[in-house]
Write a structure and sequence with these properties.
Layout lengths: L1 H14 L3 H4 L4 E4 L3 E2 L11 H14 L5 E6 L2 E6 L1 H9 L4 E6 L4 H14 L5 H13 L5 H8 L3 H9 L5 H8 L5 H8 L4 H14 L3 H24 L5 H4 L4 H14 L3 E6 L2 E6 L4 H15 L1
Helix pairs in contact: 1-5, 3-4, 6-8, 7-8, 10-12, 11-14
């Protein structure tokens, strides 16, 4: 965490100057006059952690003020979503707040930086906030990197998570796999292929490094299969010239069921199913799974 904070500190300082420089002292503001931040990057909060914070606030009060901007009919929250929710749960009617006028893009930047610094965002929430900065506010990846104190390559890699298959994104959101796993899976093209690799990761409990190695092997195998199909004298040109959804569906279901790479090749004389394994333990696992299914 300390390593990350070093870079983020520069971004945070540029967005939230010190109190002595430009901020007024905190004021007590009625909770019912504060609206949610429409640019809040954080989409989910653990209920247990929120209850713990509420209990602490009920005992000690809100120790760090929230940040708001003034509107025509009250205030709009910029940063401090957890404190605001927990204060309401604790039964408070007022909360200490610093009032600062910020435009929409600046509200998103401040909320994003605060959540990143506190490690409060999951990787998909972070990616979605970066995407909003680039799409809605016309910022380049270099601009985003500079504003939040991150390397441009980090921004680019995080944005790639938004191109993952839906099932993989869900696994990242609920913590089934880490961002490192997700980045390895993202190196594989095709939703079905990504979901098959996800199944292997989940069933076999693969580490990030093992996932990266498996992804590399799958890409190599796919390239070899593509090259072989061009040279196979038994291959039906009509089959090669068009996509076969039924074959893809069968391959996908077999990959998910077995947790490994499975390829189905059709020819004039029938075809073949190739089931790959990557070490002796994997072979034993497949042996037991296949024979158990026949028993």
């Amino acid at each position: 965490m300390s390593a990350r904070s070093g870079g983020l500190g520069r971004g945070l300082a540029s967005l939230i100057p010190s109190a002595t420089a430009s901020m007024a002292a905190p004021a007590e503001i009625p909770l019912d006059r504060i609206k949610a931040n429409p640019y809040q990057p954080r989409k989910s909060m653990a209920d247990a952690a929120l209850q713990e914070l509420a209990a602490s606030i009920a005992e000690h009060g809100v120790l760090q003020p929230v940040l708001v901007t003034e509107t025509i009919d009250g205030y709009e929250l910029i940063a401090g979503e957890r404190r605001l929710r927990a204060a309401r749960i604790a039964g408070l009617t007022r909360i200490p707040a610093v009032v600062r006028q910020l435009a929409g893009r600046e509200q998103l930047e401040v909320a994003l930086v605060e959540n990143i610094q506190r490690a409060d965002l999951n990787p998909l929430e972070e990616a979605e906030a970066y995407r909003q900065l680039t799409d809605s506010f016309g910022m380049s990846q270099d601009d985003v990197a500079r504003r939040v104190g991150r390397a441009r390559s980090t921004i680019a890699n995080t944005l790639r998570l938004l191109d993952l298959a839906g099932a993989v994104q869900s696994a990242v959101r609920d913590g089934t796999i880490t961002e490192g796993h997700a980045r390895a899976i993202a190196s594989i093209e095709g939703a079905m292929e990504q979901e098959a690799l996800l199944a292997a990761v989940s069933h076999r409990g693969l580490s990030v490094r093992q996932t990266e190695e498996l992804a590399r092997r799958l890409k190599t195998a796919a390239a070899a299969k593509a090259a072989a199909s061009l040279k196979d004298p038994e291959a039906d040109p009509a089959d090669e010239a068009r996509e076969d959804p039924e074959t893809e569906r069968i391959e996908s279901e077999l990959r998910t069921a077995l947790g490994t790479k499975v390829s189905l090749t059709r020819s004039r004389k029938g075809g073949r199913i190739v089931i790959e394994y990557y070490d002796e333990a994997d072979l034993v696992r497949l042996y037991e799974k296949l024979l158990g299914g026949l028993a």
